[in-house]
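Technical appendix A lists one of the benchmark inputs used to test multi-chain prediction within the project. The record comprises two sequence entries:
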Amino acid sequence: MSLQQTSITIVGIGLMGGSLVQSLRGHVGRLACVDNDPSVLELVRPLVDEVASDLSTAAGGTDLLVLATPVRSIVRLVRDLPSYFPDGCMVLDLGSTKGEIGQMMAALPPAFQAIGGHPMCGKETSGFQAAVPDLYQGQTFILCRNSRTTPELERLALELIDVVGAQPLYLDPDTHDAFVAATSHVPYLTAAALMRSVSMLADGRVWQASASGFRDSSRLSGSDPKMMLDILMTNSGPILAQLSAYRSQLAQLETLLQAGDEAELLDWLERVYAQYHAYRDAIG
Amino acid sequence: MSLQQTSITIVGIGLMGGSLVQSLRGHVGRLACVDNDPSVLELVRPLVDEVASDLSTAAGGTDLLVLATPVRSIVRLVRDLPSYFPDGCMVLDLGSTKGEIGQMMAALPPAFQAIGGHPMCGKETSGFQAAVPDLYQGQTFILCRNSRTTPELERLALELIDVVGAQPLYLDPDTHDAFVAATSHVPYLTAAALMRSVSMLADGRVWQASASGFRDSSRLSGSDPKMMLDILMTNSGPILAQLSAYRSQLAQLETLLQAGDEAELLDWLERVYAQYHAYRDAIG
């Protein structure tokens, strides 16, 4: 089955789901959208073949179900899929953590084909209003296989990734969760702690005295709290492990600073400088 | 004395000094540049009236000296000013920390007029090659008075700030140093610890799996190590104090995450979300 012949239902029309709608239009057989916000359904209605406030209404005729809600809502949806699709279907999710979702997918009946996905694109804004057709363009789209993953679904997922302009990267769920703990969830926590600690100065002039470095350092603290809560609660193990690694690096810096150990401190900063530039070279 | 009648010598033609040259051209009586890098002097020569590798060569006829070298070099230059200018002159510095420099300025002979400055603009790139005429445009330019500050010098500094398109903000040196510790120096340390802790995963795929959130969170870790060393060594007191406040916020988050205390965690994240948006509203 090619994408052009596939009937796709997307559940959760926020930034990710809404951007997917915009980039998949015209490339798929049929497009349906499910969201519990009526105002979002009105906005997306002109772009798709069907809208519904409940998955049970839109389930019929769906070949590929794309789950684009917050993580724990995805976990519940995957658990309940057999009641919506007695004959099974293909499922791809876009959740930010992959361990729990992968376990739920593996527990689906054999009539289901399922694969985990995580497009590495985001904005500090969220919701359908922030959706854009090129959100996925040039970004990495992580895929996590599980025991319900089939070659047919993989081919379809790779075609979808190609159509939206992203590049696939296969990772096992544990590696995925460790990587995003390190590059996304711990950075969120450090931005949040930074924002709180500066706000505690309780002096409005501090914002005037701040520059672009603070704007970038604090940006993730403006992420949607409910979305982040879901992420933190479903990935606390890898996050706590990485947070511990982070704290020990920060403690080294603090010790060098307290000691005024200039030579060691410079050596440390030069290593970080080299690591930053190796990272920038790697992402191009 | 107006800026148009003022002979200005800028010492240190990097990002800040070089951008100042570009934005002051045509608005001052005479412009001279001092830098110890001959290749920089060749690049800046066509833009100014005089270039020199040493301040002693360029000192004659200078009304206003602008010191735009790293902080500890500024401290040494201010200490040695009486040997370059036996009859005194006006001095403005652009150093990133203001405590030590302010003390050195206050100790100058009465023939000197001096004021501390800190334009809140930066880039992760440095050096004259990165200089642009609009670097100061729309940015806050902090001024710190000391016992050698005169109304005449203040008027001239405010005119210079106006010409480069910045907005003045008066702070006392201690408040300045506490603010930049909070919004710039601690964020540098957290970005550095973040970069080191992710690099320790030693798996190139982690960079592919990273998104724009990590790019922004880690950006400050690419700052020039020698410049940052100067900043850390001259502002370690305020930095260590603010780092302690930061660590205690991070520890709260870690405790809530370990306990899986969902309600408290959400409350915490919602407060941060509100603080972030209050900050963004404040900076416009």
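The mean pLDDT of chain A is 96. Residues 173-199 of chain A form the longest helix (27 residues). Comparable benchmark entries are summarised in Table A2.
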